[in-house]
Amino acid sequence: MVTFHTSLDAAFHALADPTRRAVISRLMARPASVKELAAPFAMGLPAFLKHLRVLEESGLIATEKTGRVRTCRVEIEQLAEAESWLGEQRALWQGRTDRLAAYVETRMARDDTHDG
After folding, report:
1. Using CA atoms, how far apart are residues 19 and 26, in angstroms rounded to an integer?
2. Whole-number Å distance between alpha carbons of 105 and 98
3. Residue 10: helix, strand or coil by DSSP?
4. Are strands 61-66 and 32-33 parallel, antiparallel or unpaired?
5. What's the Rg (C-alpha) of the chain?
6. Signed CA dihedral, 30, 28, 74, 25: sign only
7. pTM as predicted
8. How much is the pLDDT for 32?
9. In the predicted model, what is the mean pLDDT of the chain?
10. I need a labelling partner for 65 at 20 to 30 A (CA). Which of 10, 37, 73, 105 fits?
11. How far apart are CA 36 and CA 40, in angstroms?
12. In degrees rounded to 5, what are phi and psi of residue 15?
C-alpha cells in the first residue's frame, strides 16, 4: 500500500507541471526523441532534461538510448494507476452529491406537502 501511495505521489507531482503534462500528451501519440520533445519549449536543454528526469523518476515515462538518440515513451501502467485513483475519487464524490441531491429533493417535497 505504501508503494501505491508513493508512486501516486510521484505521478501527481510530475503531472503538476504544465511542461511535463505537455510532454505526456505529446508522448501519448507516439514515442519521441528528447530533441523532438524539447523543440516546442522556450527553455534550455538542461532545464528540459530536469523535467524529463522528474517524469522518468515518477515512472510515467521510460527512456531508451540508441546511439546518440534518447527516445522517450509513456509508461501506460503508471498513468493508468493515476487515472484509476482519480476515477475512484470521482465515483465517491458523485455518490455523495447524488445522495445530497436526493435528500434535498425529498426535504423540499416534504416541505411543500406541509405548506400546501
Report:
1. 11
2. 11
3. helix
4. unpaired
5. 22
6. positive
7. 0.78
8. 98
9. 93
10. 10
11. 8
12. -80, -5
How far apart are the C-alpha atoms of 58 and 42, rounded to whole Å? 24
Q: Please give the grid coordinates belonging to residue 113.
A: 406537502
Q: How many CB atoms lie within 10 A of CB 76?
A: 11
Side-chain-facing half-sphere of 56: CA atoms under 13 Å: 13
Read off the pLDDT of residues 45-58 as tens digits, 9 standing for 90 and up. 999 999 999 999 99
CA distance 79 to 87: 12
3-state secondary structure of 70: strand
Q: Which grid coordinates are listed for 46?
A: 538542461
- Predicted confidence (pLDDT) per residue in 73-88, tens digit: 999 999 999 999 999 9
